[in-house]
Write a structure and sequence with these properties.
By secondary structure, this protein is α/β, with parallel strands linked by helices. It contains three helices and 20 strands. It has one domain: Hexapeptide repeat proteins (UDP N-Acetylglucosamine Acyltransferase, domain 1). The N and C termini lie far apart (46 Å).
């Protein structure tokens, strides 16, 4: 009975977001609607036959999250200020965090009032570094990996479990560690 109630609430949330025009879901794709936060004023696009179980949070209006077709994202966190692009045929495990921003300024004088601003329901993004995250087609990301702002993960690459990716990953390579480093090059598929 509880699962049926949760499914009903989830469907109602989905209908609301679809009517607002901020979410497009391709044929045969599934999304856990209740895990999408602050979608109004943003754009979420999911391709055909994808399965998205992630928490997707938009930090401010004007953000874009695009997820390709035949992509699986386990219970992970996508935190978007401006742009996160995930390609086709991507497999992402659970516990992954992808963020296109630093969350706070590295300079104390620009972050000292962050908590006070949150209490007022606002945030000043003026001094917070941000850059798009791009995950190309055919990528596999292991559990608990972190993908930070400005990173591009090339086609067919593999990110090892618990890795922290701070720099671009070449296509058809395996990276692992903190910070993630290339540990092997794969043959092109």
């Amino acid at each position: 009975m509880i699962n049926g109630f949760i499914a009903m609430i989830d469907s109602m949330l989905g209908l609301r977001l679809l009517r607002q025009g901020v979410v497009e879901v391709g044929r045969g794709a599934t999304l856990v609607w209740r895990r999408v936060k602050r979608a109004a004023g943003n754009q979420l696009t999911i391709g055909e036959r994808s399965i998205v179980q992630a928490n997707i949070r938009f930090e401010e209006t004007g953000g874009v999250v695009r997820i390709g077709s035949r992509t699986f994202i386990g219970k992970s966190d996508l935190v978007c200020y401006r742009r996160i692009d995930i390609g086709d045929d991507v497999i992402m495990s659970w516990g992954i965090t992808i963020s296109d921003h630093d969350s706070h300024s590295v300079e104390w004088q620009h972050r000292q009032d962050d908590v006070l601003q949150w209490c007022e329901g606002r945030k000043d993004w003026t001094h917070v570094a941000h850059a798009p995250v791009v995950i190309a087609n055919k990528v596999w990301i292991g559990f608990n990996a972190s993908i930070l702002k400005g990173v591009t993960i090339g086609e067919g690459a593999i990110v090892g479990a618990c890795s922290v990716v701070t720099r671009d990953v070449p296509p058809f390579s395996i990276v692992a560690g903190n910070p993630a480093r290339v540990v092997r090059t794969l043959p092109f598929a």
